[in-house]
Specification:
The complex is a heterodimer of chains A (about 160) and B (about 450). Chain A is of the alpha/beta class. Chain A has one domain (about 1-60, about 95-150): Glycogen Phosphorylase B (Rossmann fold, 3-Layer(aba) Sandwich), CATH 3.40.50. Chain A contains seven helices and five strands, in the order E-H-E-E-H-H-H-H-E-H-E-H. Chain A has a five-stranded parallel β-sheet with strand order 3-2-1-4-5, with helices on both faces. In chain A, strand 1, helix 1 and strand 2 (about 30-35) form a beta-alpha-beta unit. Chain B is an alpha/beta fold and about 450 residues long. Chain B folds into two domains: about 5-225 and about 420-435, 3-Layer(aba) Sandwich (Rossmann fold); about 230-415, Glycogen Phosphorylase B (Rossmann fold). Chain B contains 17 helices and 15 strands. In chain B, helix 1 packs across helix 17 (about 420-435), helix 6 packs across helix 7 and helix 13 (about 345-350) runs antiparallel to helix 16. The two termini of chain B are about 25 Å apart. The chains are: A alpha/beta (about 160), B alpha/beta (about 450). Chains A and B meet through helix 1, helix 6, strand 5 and helix 7 of A and helix 2, helix 3 and helix 11 of B.
Chain lengths: ~160, ~450
């Protein structure tokens, strides 16, 4: 059984995800999702084995707000990130910190064969986790995993 | 035996709409007694877009050699391990910088950086087996530089098959860049020395003739046409009891917002028409490339109509298209742009012999083909949910009321646009001119 751990900062389209999970299930793979938003019931039909919401910090959305809320959002991020990161705070670092502090994520990474970013803001945590776990392949998009399992593209491991 | 180097990025087995025009063009040249080397990119590059379909290679003439270059779009790289930390951490800034780098060697975003690799490949093919003619089919437009270099260094004449247009934005109808710009300079010198320039419709050809008056006589329209493979052997009889199936078949290259009046119009039509209430609206085709396959706004908007019998049933293989068309009672043609857009699917639609309901601008290139088609419901104006609802009702009436004779006339009209018939005269003219006398326009 191939284990895939996906990350999303922006809510993905459930139908789009389900097309991929269906295809991957045929190849003997299961997909779990760590999301940095409230999944509510938007992903119930996406064919995911499990969905985990990662708390980024009190009152902070992982997605950068538009308009006037940006300043308050950045200030909250500055208060959340560690002292090391505070000198040069950025949303990507904040998201990575939230992901790296989550026990469920740590457990799942240890069992995963593939890490997948479903959107561009989810790439940085995946990139960091891939660097720390050389045996796992990492891709942008679930389609790449399907193509890799079918031997149509190569996703390298870090060894 | 004369030799053609055909720079055809999108040649089979790439799942690209241009693959069929490229395959037929190469086949016609090969059948004229030429050797053909088609230069394209490797399969892994296509996996980042719409993928590959090995069945597209069936029917490629045995005298055609395919050279695949290890080129891929860097922005679509799926392997996160290959990313720099900067790319991973700041994807938008990284993309902005990439776009700046891409235009350094050639003024075309995304593909400008391919110029050097394409030139090297074409020169290598020529060194191995000298070419008598080069045909380049943009995009990528950076391939034009290869044709220019082969001509200027080795005197090999070339022709350009513009499947789209470069200096014209076909969607807005506006000039994409001025004659005096860097891209304008490139296009001018390439076109002015080309043996022939092909455009897919008369509106685009007219734009180029006006822009390059000195060589207007070398610019001709070479329409796309359809492949016999997609024509259903038998169209089904509409079943009033079970309801009708309206189909959209093709790549979704229109803005997702165009689906709003379509889905809402369908809902309203169903609410007022008993036959439509039992009917379905099915979308088939590639909706989103690469990472976004099946996960686009289009699919999300289609799914809002699920309770009203609207569905997205995924892509269809070319080899299955005849069956897909054969399961439809009517087709919905949704197109972006205006008079400069024709769209390959328009030819397929008319070839199907089915009633066609248009959803596009009133003044549109597709209307040139559809105007003579007897089972056409022209685009509603203004384009909104109520007018689209009326179009659905009118199309349903056309489905159930049209006679066998009318359907036969529609099929006959549609089949006059077979791809070979569209491409044949242009290919013949080009190969005969070059084989008869090494034609070059001006001196390198």
């Amino acid at each position: 059984m191939t284990a895939i751990l996906a990350f999303a900062v922006t809510p993905p389209n459930a139908k789009g995800v389900s097309d991929h999970t269906t295809e991957l299930a045929k190849a003997g793979a299961t997909v779990r999702l760590a999301c940095l938003f409230d999944p509510a019931d938007t992903l119930t039909e996406a064919g995911l084995a499990e969905v985990r919401e990662i708390d980024i910090g009190p009152g902070i959305t992982a997605e950068r707000p538009r308009g006037r809320g940006v300043k308050r959002w950045l200030n909250r991020i500055r208060r959340t990130v560690s002292a090391d990161a505070r000198a040069d705070p950025d949303p990507a670092t904040c998201r990575w910190q939230a992901v790296s502090n989550d026990r469920w994520v740590i457990d799942q990474v240890a069992r995963s064969d593939f890490l997948v970013a479903l959107d561009s803001d989810a790439v940085y945590p995946v990139w960091q986790l891939a660097r720390a776990n050389p045996g796992i392949r990492a891709s942008f998009g679930l389609y790449a995993v399907t193509a890799s399992l079918a031997g149509r593209i190569e996703l390298r491991d870090g060894r | 035996m004369p030799h053609l180097i055909y720079l055809a990025v999108g040649f089979p087995p790439a799942v690209k709409s241009c693959a069929f025009r490229m395959r037929e063009t190469a086949n016609l040249v090969a059948e004229a007694g030429w050797d053909v080397t088609a230069v394209t990119i490797h399969d892994e590059g296509w996996e980042r877009e719409f993928g590959v379909d090995p069945s597209l290679l069936v029917g490629v003439h045995p005298r055609i050699r395919i050279v695949k270059l290890p080129l891929s779009r860097e922005d679509l790289e799926p392997d996160i391990r290959t990313y720099s930390e900067f790319r991973a951490q700041q994807p938008r800034k990284w993309l902005t910088e990439l776009r700046e780098r891409e235009v350094e060697s050639f003024p075309e975003i995304v593909f400008g950086s391919w110029r050097v690799a394409l030139e090297k490949a074409v020169l290598a093919v020529h060194a191995e087996r000298p070419a008598d003619l080069m045909l380049v089919s943009p995009a990528p437009n950076s391939g034009l530089a290869s044709a220019w270099r082969l001509w200027s260094e080795h005197g090999v004449p070339y022709a350009v098959d513009y499947r789209d247009a470069w200096s014209l934005n076909v969607l807005t109808g506006e000039e994409a860049f001025s004659v005096g710009s860097r891209a304008g300079e490139w296009e001018r010198r390439v076109i002015e020395h080309a043996t022939a320039v092909w455009c897919v419709n008369e509106a685009i050809a007219g734009f180029y003739r006006d822009r390059y008056l000195r060589v207007a006589d070398r610019i001709r329209t070479v329409q796309n046409g359809f492949d016999a493979l997609v024509v259903p052997t038998q169209n089904r009889r509409p079943d009033r009891e079970r309801g009708l199936t309206f189909g959209y078949v093709g790549t979704a290259n229109f803005p997702a917002d165009m689906l709003t009046p379509v889905v809402e119009g369908w809902r309203r039509a169903r609410a007022t028409d008993a036959l439509l209430e039992r009917s379905r609206l099915v979308f088939r085709g590639h909706f989103g490339a690469g990472l976004a396959r099946g996960a686009t706004r289009h699919v999300a908007m289609i799914s809002t109509g699920a309770v009203d019998g609207v569905s997205y049933d995924g892509p269809a293989a070319k080899s299955d298209l005849a069956n897909v068309y054969g399961r439809c009672d009517a087709l919905v043609l949704i197109l972006a742009g205006g008079r400069y857009v024709t769209a390959g699917k328009t030819y397929e639609y008319v070839a199907s012999g089915l009633p066609i309901m248009s959803v596009h601008a009133e003044e549109h290139g597709a209307a040139e083909i559809l105007g003579g088609y007897p089972l056409w419901v022209p685009p509603p104006a203004p384009l909104d949910a109520d007018t689209v609802a009326e179009s659905f009702r009118a199309t349903a009436r056309l489905v159930v009321e049209s006679s066998d004779d009318l359907r036969a006339r529609a099929a006959q009209y549609g089949r006059s646009y077979e791809r070979r018939a569209m491409l044949g005269p242009a290919v013949r003219s080009l190969t005969e001119a070059v084989a008869g006398e090494a034609t070059s326009v001006g001196q390198p």
